[in-house]
Design a protein that fits this description.
Layout lengths: L2 H9 L3 H14 L3 H21 L2 H14 L9 H16 L6 H8 L4
Length: 111
């Protein structure tokens, strides 16, 4: 399956399927478009986990996104805003698994 196909699944709202497929591809290849797809599919998955109340899983995905972010080209800052959105949702809903202060230290590097 191509990255284009995975983005199409994402567009169709098949979040979990798209996420699992890109995870498998990303294990073997970290190309430009694969990295972009990985970031956005993981972002969707983090939001889905928050909606389901799976805050610990969402926090783990956010940590992965924070490691992935420096490898993205983000001139329009859309990925930057997506990370802040997830962090804000986690900080509102689950202070046990997510410490906003730790996120802010990372965030300040990418202002």
């Amino acid at each position: 399956m191509t990255v284009k196909d995975i983005f199409e699944l994402r567009r169709q709202g098949k979040t979990e399927e798209a996420y699992l497929l890109i995870l498998e591809q990303y294990k073997n290849y970290h190309g430009h478009y694969t990295t972009i797809c990985m970031f956005w599919c993981a972002t969707d998955m983090a939001k889905l986990q928050i909606e389901r109340g799976n805050f610990a899983d969402a926090a783990k995905i956010l940590a992965s996104l924070m490691r992935l972010y420096p490898n993205l080209e983000d001139e329009q800052r859309s990925a930057h805003r997506a990370l802040m959105n997830i962090a804000t949702l986690l900080s509102i809903n689950d202070a046990e698994h997510f410490k906003f202060d730790t996120f802010k230290l990372w965030w300040d590097k990418f202002k």
